[in-house]
Amino acid sequence: MRLAFIMSELGSGLRRNLTMVISVILVTFVSLTFVGAAGLLQMQIGQLKGFWYDKVQVTIYLCTDIPANSNCVSGPVTPDQKATIEGMLESPAVKPYIENWTFETQEEALAHFREQFANSPMVDSVEAGNLPSSFRIKLDDPEKYQIINETFSATPGVDSVVDQRKVLEKLFSWMNIATYVAMGVAGLMIICAALLIATTIRLSAQSRMREIDIMRLVGASKTVIQLPFVLEGVIAATIGALLASGAVWSIVVFFMGGYLADANTGTPFISAREALVIYPVLILLGVVLAGVASAVSLRKNLKV
To answer: Which residue ranges traverse the bilayer (predicted)?
Structure first.
């Protein structure tokens, strides 16, 4: 009997406040979509870090005709200086930190440059002599870059020592900023959703004050009176959370797994299966948000 009464009151409330319920659904949908997008971005950052950090190299650029520092004042790197650097790479003090290394000539550097900048008008103006030869080093542990830097930065014939990881860290820092912005917008939208849910439930309760008074007189408990109103907010927010989950799934499958994956074939993107962890979080967040907002609104505005 009580369940039938609660369901009847719930259906009546949803019909009477259909416009407000739709508003709650839409606001919850937008806010939780931002939350889901921020979660996706953070997961993608983690996956890219694991992928690229395993591939990053330390590059030792050798001197060219144009001196860039005191190591290069005597001119381009000499065969003896190059041999000395190779010996240092194979020395017991350095070799344990290195997984492998290769040497790139100026001609090979020019070929790579032309491949990377094939569509640039400057590609024909660059010659092999403008580009430095280099040693490309893959470390066992990328965190040990400083050892290589300290060992080779002052060596004659070395122009500079560059850690590619630092370039990636700048990119990842910008991606982290984007995540924080998305989370900030999501937080504001969640606050808006909570206020809208609270307002909707309060108006729904006030529009049925006569029915509530009758229920008090016949001895209905506080839980029985308030539960239909709470369920209104929970149902609306759950629908919004389900729509947000669908939007996040679409982003993963069609945008990240489709458009971005096709345009960046060498880059790994998170799959729909990996993103499954986000969907229950969004639904749970929607239910908790609606339940708390509804309960607080009823406690403050509906004295039972």
So the answer is: 21-45, 177-203, 224-257, 277-298
The dihedral over CA atoms of 184, 256, 114, 156, expressed in degrees to the nearest 10, equals 50
Residue owning tokens 């520092």 = 69
Over the Cα atoms of the chain, what is R_g?
Answer: 31
Give the rounded distance of the alpha carbon of 62 from its chain centre: 37
Cβ-count burial of 210 within 10 angstroms (0-12 exposed, 13-18 middle, 19+ buried)?
A: exposed
- 58-62 and 134-139 beta bridge pairing: antiparallel
Cα Dmax for the chain: 101
Are the C-beta atoms of 201 and 290 separated by less than 8 Å?
no
The predicted model gives 147-171 an average pLDDT of 81
Burial degree of 95 (CB within 10 A; 0-12, 13-18, 19+): exposed
pLDDT tens, 233-253? 788 888 889 999 999 999 888
Domains of the chain (ranges plus CATH)?
Answer: 2-53+169-301 (no CATH), 58-164 (3.30.70.3040)
Whether the predicted pLDDT of 26 surpasses 50:
yes
* Beta-ladder partners of 161: 60
CA distance 27 to 41: 21
